[in-house]
Design a protein that fits this description.
2 copies of one chain form a homodimer. By secondary structure, chain A is of the alpha/beta class. Chain A folds into 2 domains: 266 residues, 3-Layer(aba) Sandwich (Rossmann fold); 209 residues, Rossmann fold, CATH 3.40.50. Helices cover 44% and strands 18% of the residues of chain A. In chain A, the strands form 3 sheets. In chain A, strands 5-6-4-1-7-8-9-12-11-10 form a 10-stranded mixed sheet, sandwiched between helices. Chain A has a 6-stranded parallel sheet with strand order 15-14-13-16-17-18, with helices on both faces. A two-stranded antiparallel ribbon of chain A has the order 2-3. In chain A, helix 10 crosses helix 13 and helix 11 runs parallel beside helix 12. The radius of gyration of chain A is 24 Å and the shape is globular. The relative contact order of chain A is 0.11.
Chain lengths: 517, 517
């Protein structure tokens, strides 16, 4: 009912967004490729890392025309930007795949440090993952206010300029897809110059409720909310995050939310909060899993750990406090205490990629990880058996090998936007693996019913969950894994993108828009 | 619309709750009086401390019959309990006021420690005030699971028994008013024995949203939610807390919320979430303010600080991390740095009552407070001027004297259910005081528009807010203070209680219940 009322107020666009020939402008901080130089001084092209880039690369094929706007990162990136006068250019993918049309934005180092090193990480990351002990942190000072205005907003304006100028080159008609917490206010700049784009921002990390956002003063949080509302769709991995976002604009901006449609009307525009759970490229991952390199890792792991007589618990994470690594080891410690007959019969392989070691909380956290591993290995190990094998590395093929042969995958994050590790493991595992999954991951909404639930602050419960996972009867394990894999195969990354595009194209294509509920 | 449907399903009661002769059973952890012995070994009666007791004492006059159930605390309390075989008894108030009908419940020391020292404080207090840095705390272990079941639930069962037996003595017809976070599951026990009571629980501290409650596993949070839903009314200080509670039962228990009525139907019973902002006894406070003892404090403060030539900033708090004391001093430090002309012309009097020093976080926090005070006084003080006067004491008459003469009251709590200090100060101040009030206090909903808003994590903003408060023109200060005082006078503690009683009495008194919206 309210829907009709809202629609009649909504902005009417002069173009048909459902046109499949519309160009698509993507924005992400990470680039799909970065440039370097080899020893001979020749330019090299390397594939970009990170979940968003991996998800989007390869999907651009389905667009008639794509421009990918991203940050220049390496020294050679900056040389390339200069060569093109800051404009967009074509580049072949690192493995000779499809041509990419890139626009790299070069930000002044001082602005970049404030934008990225003060506001995006750690401030927004910490707030959105609930990592602050509020009695003592954060202390927002003049440095933060300055960093917000002359770093975050300034950088967003520059990226917004780049996006808007690519839209303008194409006559102001485009679909614009912005990505993640670095760019919450970009849409404000784009909308003011290009009022008729169909635009979304995807938030890839958790979105907490309105109380948690009071960590920021209105001078910071209000521009963030307003910036997001300059999109047509604000997209999240789960319904819970989308609801939290609408509660924020209801409480902090006083907007009236149409809860049946999950939308608000702002300046006559109809803005939707939607959820699209991100996924993986199942086919590509299965190809990697079948490779010789991965098979070699499987062989070594099998021999080294004495599989399958011994059971293997696996975790694969960055060393981020939000991943809850220390409590995971404490739970394993408690499990060995409660179930001493498991000693010698299980190994916990933790493949951890060191992360953000320039941030003190992260450096401290790595110390704690090392400390608890030593403690648990000293307490329970011996006779050639190490209870925990800690590998501080980032080797994707090794991780895929471990996915194939593990008996339990532990994902106990205290907050996680999605968690793709859980989706990767369930589609390549060959040992009827049990997924032990935190209720506070985005993935839980899809995979929770096929997993052993983990409550991330409860060490005792996690100890029991690990023991339960290790002891689960084969038929049950197999049925759960098959169903979990089925969920991921059904909603793969292609589907994730198609659902978003369908919604954006429907925005202005017809008199009556269609949206996924 | 949905309202009618719910009402038709609601429990029908055999009695008329609107009957003004119905007995009222109160439950609070703190007692209105505690017993002791003097040097001659004679029994003494002392008035109980704390906001709830102060609010409820004196209000019992309006009930036809009251039984106040509370915890035995002192050794002499326990002697008194034994003398009455654990049953209720009459006692005169400490100053010879009205007779109180008390029932003190004596809990085994081991149960009490788990109930009070492990679960209520710090676990529930910390979760509800957002004090945990979730990367490292809490670590819930077997000790917490045990303390929840054999401490919190067990103690709630004992208090529930006491309440239920007092109801049964009166034929099962009573109004039951339970208080605060110690007693979230008491109503479950009372409801099972006395299905027909009209019962409420008042939550006096903040109630965070559903994400924040995932700090507890379902084995703890679900009984808490279910226990609260055994009441007819779950009461809070603000609409925001009431909304957060309903979001919790919607998300964690899967109940359908009628948002227009702020209610849910559980087992055929209609349970409402309501807000009643607690207040103070204005007349009694003004009598204290006019006393000779307070006047003597006013005289000393005036002379000592050189008032009113010098301006006085005041805070009155427990040394609880939720009160945000350290950031308040850092903001004052920053204000003196930004506005050096204020040096020597202002004093910050902090009257802080040491709190919970057996809890390590509180002991650490007191250390930090002392540290920052020394730092600020060393940095800015000299020539006989101390920028901060830190008094670690709890002298109500001294505090009231300071309320009368301060120029600015700083209340920058990072989370606070209500904050009565702000309400007390505005009704007795004589200096056209400016209230600098955190947006995260319950009081902000009523007094925020007459205050300078403080954003509790933002030290820079608080520094500017303090300077703005000190420099506010007289006419503006006066108008704001008058309006703030008017709000408190209009909604005093009598009104707070009447509104609750009216709602409870309406529950089953008429075919169509009336509720405050």
């Amino acid at each position: 009912m309210g829907k009709g009322v809202h629609m009649s107020q909504s902005h009417t666009s002069p173009f048909d967004a459902s046109d499949p020939n519309l160009p698509v402008i993507l924005l992400s901080h990470r680039a799909p490729v970065t440039f370097g130089t080899n020893e001979a001084g020749e330019r090299t092209i390397n594939r970009g890392a990170g979940g968003i880039v991996t998800a989007l690369t390869g999907l651009t094929e389905q667009f008639a025309e794509t421009v990918w706007v991203c940050a220049a990162d390496s020294d050679e990136d900056r040389v390339v930007v200069e060569e093109h006068d800051g404009e967009s250019f074509d580049v072949a993918g690192p493995h000779g795949e499809q041509q990419l049309h890139l626009r790299m934005v070069q930000i002044d180092a001082d602005v970049q440090e404030k934008f990225y090193g003060v506001i995006s990480n750690p401030l927004l990351w910490f707030i959105q993952h609930g990592l602050y002990g509020l009695a003592t942190a954060p202390d927002l000072t003049q440095r933060d206010h300055d960093a917000f205005v002359t770093g975050y907003i300034a950088a967003n304006a520059e990226f917004g300029d780049a996006v808007a100028s690519e839209v303008e080159k194409r006559g102001g008609r485009a679909i614009v897809m912005l990505h993640d917490y670095h760019f919450y206010v970009v849409a404000s700049f784009v909308r003011s110059r290009c009022p008729d784009v169909a635009m979304s921002l995807f938030v890839h990390i958790p979105w907490p409720g309105p109380d948690n956002w009071t960590v920021l003063p209105p001078s910071m949080r209000d521009p963030i909310f307003a910036g997001l509302l300059a999109n047509d769709v604000v997209a999240f991995h789960t319904d819970r995050f989308a609801r939290n976002f609408l509660l924020c604009v209801q409480e902090h901006l006083g907007l009236q939310v149409d809860w049946s449609d999950m939308s608000v009307v702002v300046d006559g525009r109809h803005v939707r909060a939607r959820s699209y759970p991100i996924s993986i490229d199942v086919e590509a991952l299965r190809a990697v899993a079948a490779s010789d390199a991965v098979q070699a890792h499987v062989d070594v792991l099998t021999t080294q750990y004495g599989l399958p007589e011994r059971q293997l618990i696996l975790r694969v994470d960055r060393t981020d406090p939000s991943k809850n690594i220390v409590r995971g080891f404490r739970a394993y410690d408690r499990m060995l205490e409660l179930t001493p007959e498991l000693k010698g019969k299980v190994v916990f392989l933790a493949m951890l990629q060191p992360s953000r070691q320039d941030v003190s909380e992260y450096a401290d956290y790595l110390q704690q990880i090392g400390g608890v591993v030593a403690e648990v290995n000293a307490r329970h190990g011996g006779d050639g058996w190490q209870p925990i094998d800690l590998r501080l590395d980032n080797d994707f093929e090794f991780a895929v090998g471990a996915y194939r042969v593990c008996d339990v995958l532990l994902v106990n994050a205290l907050a996680d936007g999605m968690n793709l590790v859980s989706k990767e493991a369930v589609v390549v595992n060959e040992r009827d693996m049990v997924l032990a999954l935190s209720e506070n991951t985005g993935a839980f909404a899809e995979l929770g019913e096929h997993a052993v639930t983990v409550y991330p602050f409860d060490i005792e419960q996690q100890a029991h969950a690990l023991a339960e996972a290790l002891a689960m009867p084969l038929a049950e394990r197999r049925a759960h894994l098959r169903e979990a894999a089925g969920v991921v195969v059904m909603n793969d990354v292609q589907q994730w993108l198609s659902a978003q595009l369908e919604d954006l194209r429907a925005l202005r294509g017809h008199g009556v828009p269609r949206f996924t509920p």
